[in-house]
UniProtKB/TrEMBL annotation:
SUPFAM superfamilies: Putative cyclase. Pfam families: Cyclase (PF04199). One of its GO terms (molecular function) is arylformamidase activity. This is Cyclase. One of its GO terms (biological process) is L-tryptophan catabolic process to kynurenine. It comes from the Bacteria. It comes from Paraburkholderia tropica. InterPro entries: KFase/CYL (IPR007325), KFase_sf (IPR037175).
Amino acid sequence: MEVRNVPHVSELLANSPKNWGKWGPEDEVGSLNYLTAAQILKGIATVRQGKTFTLQVRMGDPDGDPVWPGRQGAKRMSVMDRGHYNCGKGPVFPGSYQYADDVMFMYLQGSTQYDALGHVWYDDQIWNGYDADTTIGGLAKASVCPIGERGVVGRGVLIDIARHRGKDVLDPGETFTHRDLLDAAQAQGVTIEKRDILVIRTGWIGSFYKRDRAEFYANFKEPGLTYSPELVQWFQDMEIPNLVTDTIANEVTTDPVSGVDLPLHNALMRNLGIALTEIAQLDALADDCAQDGQYAFLYTAAPLKVVGGTGAPVNPIVIK
Ligand code: UVW
């Protein structure tokens, strides 16, 4: 068996750029600060057709939701419904109306979601240099709540890598770089502009609903962006505020060069403060973009304001 000498992520990212302090010592939303009023108006200027698309996957599907291995899909349970009234146990109120209630158990990363900037770290520090001890028992710093309070609105651009490669879905572990994004953008006739919300389709989440579940999770390796110093610098130079993909972790599971798992979570989110939106359902939007040729749009989203949350579900809305 091949034994690889995998470097520590801090070694891999030793010279990687950081935006810590750029928006002040108390900042908790990072590169979302790039989404100024001008960016919002730029997004609005793309709206021409009155079409809307929601990007969340269905949550609490009894057939299973796509989740990172080790997590569980959301489970919704009825705690009050007509059955209670049928057996005389439903509460009676003045006026005699009846009602249904339910509760849900879920991993906050267990649906389409925003990661909090403090979701991952190395070397004892999270985004903006906050101490990793601030994550104990709930994120006291850089939780998802400030992202929910702020909201995310700007010009979004879809890059359909799967379609660009003539595939319904990329292969497990298949990689692409920022140069591939630029090639795909050119082929689509769209320009990735500075401060765009970058939405990347691989077909992966859509395939979850068509594949055998055991096969989907077997030797789990998602396709995705792969780490290089040039790619990180490109995100930094482009001032990308938010990366949205239809995969569970927004990057190839294991960097094929270094062997490190999920290095972009640290390079882009911990160090640059780029918000990550994962498990987006992009197929309907991508089909429409291929049809009308409009790959730029108004992107709007706000994760739930979970106090101390490491992430929170979201149903982004795209308007063309
Ligand atoms: C992990 O934490 C593994 O990834 P995600 O950001 O998808 O939750």
